[in-house]
Amino acid sequence: MTDIRREHAEALDAADPVAGLRSRFVVENDIVYVDGNSLGRLPHAVRDRVSTTVEEWGSRLVAGWADWIELPRQVGDRLAGAVLGARAGEVVVTDSVTVNLYKLASAALDARSDRRTVVIDADDFPTDRYVVEGLAQRRGLDLGVMADAPLEGHHPDDVASMCAVLQPALVVLSHVNYRTGALLDMPAITEAVHEHGALMLWDLSHSVGVVPIDLRRSGADLAVGCTYKYLNAGPGAPAFLYVRSELQESLRSPIWGWFGQRGQFEMGPSYEPEAGVARFLAGTPPIAGVASVDAALGPIEEAGIDEIWAKSQALTQFVVDLHDTWLAPLGCELGTPRDPERRGSHVSVRHPDAWQLCRALIEIEGVVPDFRGPDSIRLGLSPLYTRFVDAWNAVDRLRRLVETGEYRAVAAAPRRVT
Ligand SMILES: *Cc1c(COP(=O)(O)O)cnc(C)c1O
């Protein structure tokens, strides 16, 4: 029988090896923040670093570029080593996930122009589906849409059968599903895709910084991911992209920008791609944002991804146990896989009135989760600063709202941001 008493949550916090890292983050009030999977908390080191970068601009002016110019690659190398299982020279930090996905998917489709299909997941994050759909439409390619995934997400065998039939040029999937938290088997799926001669592009937005990732060992060809969720680099901090070193020379960015040009400051007459992954840079990178990513990696490196992952699994399991004991009897349903090895770091609780429950959690209970349609309340449990008592409080207050029906008094009007 699982111990779900508040005292047990306190005991888990007392024994937590990464508990001390919470002090590296700005925590200004007693809001129970369970939305770090949408926007991570602000690390003190990021606040300091952004301020230093802005001061550098003031004092060094254009001379600052002597150092800034290397940042997208340097921070890419640091990310590669700390959380991606990639080599130096395989990752750069620049642009948004959307733009990076466009660049890499485009390059992959050019490289496999003998094939006519690209495979996506019907349940993937919208921008991923839209970007690929747009590329397919413009090129007159067919879309292979993987639908009806079980709660655990697509099995490698399902991806293999899809590829066997469609012989796609490229498969694009998210490592962790944004709604359910399902964590796909990256090595097995990548292998299945390769067996059928396609390229594999992973979106790591919901796994990077919390789930151990080994891009080299999994054989992944391409990857993108954002830095403002579990990496805590801030709203609009630039994303990263990964191109396996063996593929770099054969791929070209669809955007022939001067930051991807060989000998950038020779200002030559025509475009010739830079060697290596830097060819996927386009225009001037947002330097304060790239510096944020750099600083945000400090606490993550200090804890180590394995400790972070261990705490993530313990936190999500605690919430699943609380759900089963308190919420399931009240008509809620778990919208996340039960196997801790097969989920990321958020737990989705499903309820027909999820939207109003989310609003009531925020407005009445001081708990910040988020809503994902049609009926999911996502409880994001970012291990570096989320305590077991936070998880306990969040579910306890959700239980109270469902039990009393008090949430029905909250306005149900839709909002622009959910
Ligand atoms: C958060 C997220 C994005 C965000 O894309 P941006 O272009 O950075 O806004 C994309 N894909 C997935 C899977 C995400 O979770």
3D architecture notes:
With 418 residues, the protein is of the alpha/beta class. The chain has helices spanning 6-14, 44-60, 65-68, 71-84, 97-111, 126-139, 156-166, 186-195, 215-218, 245-248, 287-303, 305-327, 354-363, 388-404; strands at residues 32-33, 91-93, 117-121, 142-146, 170-174, 199-203, 222-225, 240-243, 333-334, 346-350, 367-368, 370-372, 376-380. A seven-stranded mixed β-sheet has the order 2-8-7-6-5-3-4, sandwiched between helices. It has a four-stranded antiparallel β-sheet with strand order 9-10-13-12. It has a two-stranded parallel sheet with strand order 1-11. The longest helix is centred in the C-terminal third of the chain and has 23 residues, at 305-327. The chain is globular. The model has no long low-confidence stretch (mean pLDDT 97). Bound molecules: pyridoxal-5'-phosphate (PLP). Pyridoxal-5'-phosphate is lined by residues 96-98, 125, 127-128, 174, 178, 203, 205-206, 226, 239.
